[in-house]
Amino acid sequence: MGIVIPLVSVSAFWAIIGFGGPWLVPKGPNRGIVQLMIVMTAVCCWMFWIMVYLHQLNPLIGPQINVKTIRWISQQWGNSKDVVSN
């Protein structure tokens, strides 16, 4: 449930901007270009947000520490008996 609320709310926000924004552009010679810019901005911002959000849900690469560093940290912190005796 924690994933659905931000996903729906942010997607709805950018959908409103993308579909409703072009209707607010006043008539003029560059109206089509301005409408296209609004729609493309909404699409690009939504895609950037969704990629970052989904990437944070399931990171592909986690932190990696080699065994020598773990043993050194364990020795420095004083609990080396647990780690050294595999």
Automatic annotation (TrEMBL):
Its main location: membrane. The keyword Ion transport applies. It is found in: Endomembrane system; Membrane. InterPro entries: ATPase_V0-cplx_e1/e2_su (IPR008389), ATPase_V0-cplx_e1/e2_su_met (IPR017385). The keyword Ion transport applies. Pfam families: ATP_synt_H. GO terms for cellular component: endomembrane system; plasma membrane proton-transporting V-type ATPase complex; proton-transporting V-type ATPase, V0 domain. It is a multi-pass membrane protein. GO terms for molecular function: proton-transporting ATPase activity, rotational mechanism. Keywords: Hydrogen ion transport, Ion transport, Membrane, Transmembrane, Transmembrane helix, Transport. The chain crosses the membrane at residues 7-26, 32-54. Subunit of the V0 complex of vacuolar(H+)-ATPase (V-ATPase), a multisubunit enzyme composed of a peripheral complex (V1) that hydrolyzes ATP and a membrane integral complex (V0) that translocates protons. V-ATPase is responsible for acidifying and maintaining the pH of intracellular compartments and in some cell types, is targeted to the plasma membrane, where it is responsible for acidifying the extracellular environment. V-ATPase is a heteromultimeric enzyme made up of two complexes: the ATP-hydrolytic V1 complex and the proton translocation V0 complex. Belongs to the V-ATPase e1/e2 subunit family. This is V-type proton ATPase subunit.
